[in-house]
Specification:
5-stranded antiparallel beta sheet; 4-stranded antiparallel beta sheet; alpha+beta; Immunoglobulin-like; about 160 residues
């Protein structure tokens, strides 16, 4: 084999390798069907002061972080993440969730923006009408997810200056 043929073969192999590597790794600018970049993954991504609450009663773990609360918020929003390795996450969170204030008033969600029902992992944002006047605490209750009759997540709102 002469040197020109060897160089040509090496150039083709290197070029093909580069092409395979560049096509095989997804671009950060290319959206995919599973792209949930509009849904914050952590409280740090939304620059929130609110504590993430976790209920890890098996078979489903639920994590909730308030994103927007207070009198200046048009809607009160909560980031919810559900994880399981047993069964499918088929609950409609707008039907099993209730926000409760310090006077035991209950509020139904306005909607859910996030992953659809099904699968082992779901994330999204559930929203509610703001409560006026702002209560001293709120509690988000989720019923019958993973066979657990009632899960409760509570945040104290007295420490926050809403003026």
């Amino acid at each position: 084999m002469n040197s020109k043929t060897a160089i040509l073969i090496i150039a083709v192999v290197v070029g093909a390798g580069f092409l395979i590597v560049s096509l095989g790794s997804p671009s950060s600018e290319t959206p995919t069907a599973a792209d949930t970049s509009s849904i914050p993954e952590t409280a740090a991504e939304v620059n929130t002061e609110w504590e993430t609450k976790i209920d890890d009663q098996l078979p489903v773990t639920i994590k909730i972080t308030p994103l927007e609360l207070g009198k200046d918020s048009a809607t009160w929003k909560f980031q919810i993440t559900l994880d399981t390795h047993a069964g499918s996450l088929d609950d409609d969170l707008t039907k099993v969730s209730t926000l409760i204030d310090d006077k035991d008033n209950t509020y139904k969600p306005l909607g859910w923006e996030g992953d659809p029902v099904g699968g082992h992992h779901r994330a999204g944002i559930i929203s509610f009408e703001p409560i006026e006047p702002v209560p001293s605490y709120i509690e988000l209750r989720i019923k019958k997810v993973g066979g657990i009759s009632d899960r409760s997540f509570r945040w104290d709102l007295t420490a926050v200056n809403y003026e």
